[in-house]
Amino acid sequence: MRALSLGLLLLLWIAAAGFTDDASVLPQPWTLWAPFVQAVSSGALPYHLGMTLWRVICAFVPAMVIGVAIGFLMGRVAAVDRWLDPWLVVFLNLPALVLIVLCYIWIGLNETAAITAVVLNKIPNVATLLREGARALDPDLDSMAAVYRMRPLARLRHVIMPQLAPFIAAAARSGIAVIWKIVLVVEFLGRSSGIRVPDPFLFPAFQRCHGAGLCAFLHRRDAAGGGFLPAAGRTPGAALEDGVIRIDVRRKAFGEEEVLRDIRFEMEIGETVAILGPSGIGKSTLLRLVAGIDTAFDGEITRPENIAMVFQEPVLLPWRSVIENLTLVHPQLGMQAALSALERTGIADRAALFPGQLSLGQQRRLALARAFAGRPELLVLDEPYVSLDPAMAEDMLALTEALIAETAPAVILVTHSEAEARRLARRCLRLAGKPATIIEEFAAAPGRAS
Length: 450
Hints:
By secondary structure, the chain is of the alpha/beta class. 54% of the residues lie in helices and 13% in strands.
C-alpha cells in the first residue's frame, strides 16, 4: 500500500512537470539523476547534507528538552500555565521567517543565531502537546504515588513518563519534520553550507528588493562582531509522637462550596474507625486529607509517616508487572518479601503478569497486597469492596480482616455498609449535613480489640 501511494505521488510529479513544461520550475524526476550523481561523487552533497543534519540535531534536542519541561509545568501548575499561556500564544502565531530574521539581526549571521531561531520556533509546539499530556495524567495514579511516598525519580520514571510517552513521541515525530523545514529556511537566509538553494532564482524579488538590503545589513552586523515534580502531599501538622492520630479539620472547601466543617476525632495505632454517610457527603474528601493527598484545608492532622491506602479502584501501574507494582512502591522490599506479600493475598502465581491480565478480584487483591506489604502504621480504606459481587466482597472482607489482625495498623474505613463497618471497626462516625460534620459516634463492636 505504501509503495502504491509513493508511486501515485511520482506519477503526479511527472504529470505536473509535463503540464508546466519548464525544467527551471519543475523538472522531470529522471533529469535529476545526473546532477545527483555528480553532487555525491564530488563530495558536495554529503558535506552539505551533514551540515543540515547537524543543525537539525542541535536544534531538535534542546527544543524537545525545554518544550517538554515547559509543557509539563504548564499542565501541572496552574500558576505557571496562567503566566506562560500568553507567551505560548504569541510564539505559536509568530511567523517562523520573522523569528529567523530577528535572530539574525540580534545575534548575527552565525550558527548560534541559526540554531536559536530553529529552537524558538519549535519549543511552543512541543510545550503545547506536553501541556495536554500533563493535564491528561491519571489523578488516581498521582494520589497513589503521593500516599506511598514514591521517590521523585521513581515517580517520574514509572508513573509519569509512561503516561507522557505518546505525547512525547507525537511531539518528536512532528518536530523532526518541522525542524528540517525551518533549518532549510535558516540556511537559505544566512548560511553558506547545508541543503539549501545556492542561488535562489525562485525568489528574485527577495534578492533585488528589501531582502537584499536586509541581508546586507545582517552581513554588516556580522562583520562588526554581532554575534517540576510535584512533591508528595503533606498534611499540615505535627509528627506522630504519642501513638495517637489526631484529625482536626476545621474547614474544607472547593472554591465557594464548603464541604467539611469541624471534623474532629482521635484514634490509636491498632484501632479501626469507620466513616459512614450518604454518597457525596465528603467521606472520600476526608480520607484524602488524612492520607496527605489534599493539603488545602483549615486545620491540622497528626499522623504517622508510614501510610497506605486502598482506593475505590485498584489504581495499579498497567505497564508494570504484578510484582513490580509492589517493589516500585516499596523499594525496601526484597523479591522474596514481595512474593510473600502476594502469597498472603493468593496471587503469587500471577507475579509475572500485568494488571490487565488479572480479573477484577485479583486486581483488588494486588491493591491489598501493595497496601499491607509496607506494614503501614495507618491504613486508609476508601470503599475497597465497591462494585464487587457479594461472594467476592465477602472474600475480600475476610482477607482484609485477616491482614489487619496480622499487621495491626490504625485503620480508617469509608463504607456505605454498616455491616462492613461493624465487622471491621471498633467504632463508627456518621457524617451528615452541608457542610458535613460528625453527627453521631457509636461503638461498632463492643469489646473488640481493633
